[in-house]
Write a structure and sequence with these properties.
Elements lengths: L1 E6 L3 H7 L9 E4 L2 E4 L4 E4 L2 E4 L7 E10 L4 E10 L7 E2 L2 E2 L3 E4 L7 E13 L8 E14 L4 E6 L8 E5 L11 E8 L1
Parallel strand pairs: 1-12
Antiparallel strand pairs: 2-10, 3-4, 4-14, 5-6, 6-7, 8-9, 11-12, 11-15, 12-13, 13-14
């Protein structure tokens, strides 16, 4: 039996992400960062961006756990809030947190990158075999005139961390996934 699962960033999260358009995103804040010096990998469990001239001052990005019969993954959740997620906030000031210097100018375009792959359970009898085709929004790519920054979920991780990297998101060679741009926000 073959099943199909599709998980997309919610429309309310897409609407929240559009607030980054025309914003100068120089820094973001996270409750903590994990830095793997050997691989150059930087991850956070959530990110907060202070918005200028917005009715709600923060865009918070985190992930949500999704489970299918044979697989599990994380997809993004974005929300507009009065304060940063999981970070102390007093009298308009952000408390102790990790700072991410993105060095983006005005965000011109945001792409939502969808991952598609198949999963099979092969250690069962022929009659119990199950296949899944899974699609989910795995990365968000921010473009400006100076460069590109990608936020992506970690494949195979149960932690729900967000990988932050300079450049467009690319899947590693050992992952059997097809990436497509599902949505472009301008």
């Amino acid at each position: 039996m073959k099943r199909f699962y599709s998980t997309q960033i919610s429309e309310s999260s897409i609407a929240a992400l559009t607030t980054l358009l025309r914003q100068d995103i120089v820094i973001g804040n996270a409750p903590q960062l994990v830095v793997d010096v050997g691989s150059g990998r930087v991850t956070a469990f959530s990110l907060s961006f202070r918005l200028k001239n917005a009715s709600v001052p923060f865009l918070n990005i985190s992930t949500d756990w999704v489970q299918t019969d044979l697989d599990n993954h994380h997809t993004f959740v974005a929300s507009l809030d009065a304060k940063p997620h999981d970070i102390a906030f007093f009298d308009g000031r952000i408390g102790p947190s990790s700072t991410v210097f993105l060095a983006l100018g005005e965000v011109e375009t945001i792409e939502v990158i969808q991952s598609t792959y198949e999963v099979r359970n092969v250690d069962v009898s022929e009659q119990d075999k199950l296949e899944e085709r899974v699609e989910f929004d795995r990365a968000i790519t921010l473009y400006d005139s100076k460069g590109v920054v990608s936020l992506s979920t970690e494949a195979g991780s149960i932690l729900g961390d967000i990988r932050i990297q300079k450049g467009a998101f690319r899947v590693s060679d050992d992952e059997d996934e097809v990436m497509t741009v599902r949505k472009t926000l301008e």
